[in-house]
Amino acid sequence: MTQHTPNVAEPLTLPCGVTVKNRFYKSAMNEAMAGRDCAPTKEHAHLYRTWADGGTGILVTGNVMVDRTQLGEPGNVAVEDERDIDMLRRWAAAGTRNGAHCWMQINHPGRQSPITINQHPYAPSGGKLNGEYGRFFAEPTALTIEQIHDIVRRFATTASIAKKAGFTGVEIHAAHGYLISQFLSPEDNRRTDEYGGGIEHRARFLFEVFDAVRKAVGPKFPIAVKLNSSDVPIAVKVDERGAFAGFDEDESIWVMKQLEQRGVDLIDISGGTLEKPVIQTNSGAIEDHRRGVYFTEFAKRIKGEISVPVALTGGFRSAHDMELALTEGITQMIGIARPLALVPDLPNRIIHDHWNGTVDLPWVTTGFKALDRAFGGILVISWFELQMNRIGRGRRPNPRIGGMRALCFAIGKHGPAALTPRRRKGHQ
């Protein structure tokens, strides 16, 4: 009896004309592998070779910053010139084996740059991060018009180098409270010039970045944009007047439509910021089973609004849920991240071995409740960074590793900077 070809095995042709071999989209995770010089390493190449051989259609790198003085997390790669072109070529060649695409995610952190690695961050407007995280970040300086134009140029330069090195696409990071997301948010962006005010002005920076990148890489090179569905994906936050405070779903849809007109090839749906993360748990499969796939309601809402392909990322753990999402047409790409840090060949297992199970992620714990509460988000991120570093060194992932070992790994690799809050990637 002939086995039915799963939907995840179907190729997808992007608006630019490029075809992707299947629907698996490895969403970005910070690999934490760069040295103090922000250069890519042979471990990056080995990690992405493993994922490419494992069958994923598109591999999106972790944050690659466009300015090495402005980093979002310890261990970020930065590309602002061609000094590391040889290693970038090795990384790209590894990530494009087996017919895979490898796209560089390009980003600027804005004010979301920890004080342990950056005492002089920039933002659309002045003002520190709110709440308990504020003490970990320096007061940012509001960007001048000239500095905004320079950052736009930097995005284009980084994208151009990515193409020259052999990466087959780029993803512009406009979500999660980083700089472009800060411009989009009325909470963060209080400018009164052409970059502030209504959404058409707050989105100007993103559109200028996109247009500059498109000019730099040409019409046939894939460009994706990672965009929040809203800044507060779980609980709606209102200001003192009862209005939504932050970038909301209506504004997100408007931005998506504008990007579609500009020729975006894929929109990667996400949500939340450092101050308002999507999830604050390290309970692994327990939380996954309770919650299911993220952003499905928003994905259903935009189904008839845009025709550009969508990647839905967060919470895909079972082959059944992946097939259902594609069958219902709420997404065209299945975004996964954490499962690939434990099962690097998951796409091959589903497509070729017809595996129909569920990847259960472990409950990451140090064994001490006080430490788990204190370092919950950092603990989860560090644990998965440790797994990726194991793969990068030619070792197998080990789900039995405890949280204490993950914290020790992070501190040993990055020093005190490892203990500063970072954007929650635990939901992917």
UniProtKB/TrEMBL annotation:
Domain NADH:flavin oxidoreductase/NADH oxidase N-terminal intervals: 10-352
The keyword Chaperone is annotated on this UniProt entry: no
Keyword Flavoprotein applies: yes
Gene Ontology molecular function: FMN binding; oxidoreductase activity
Assigned keywords, A-Z: Flavoprotein, Oxidoreductase
InterPro entries: Aldolase_TIM, NADH_flavin_oxidoreductase, OxRdtase_FMN_N
SUPFAM superfamilies named in the record: FMN-linked oxidoreductases
Name listed for the protein in its UniProt record: NADH:flavin oxidoreductase
Organism of derivation: Bifidobacterium tissieri
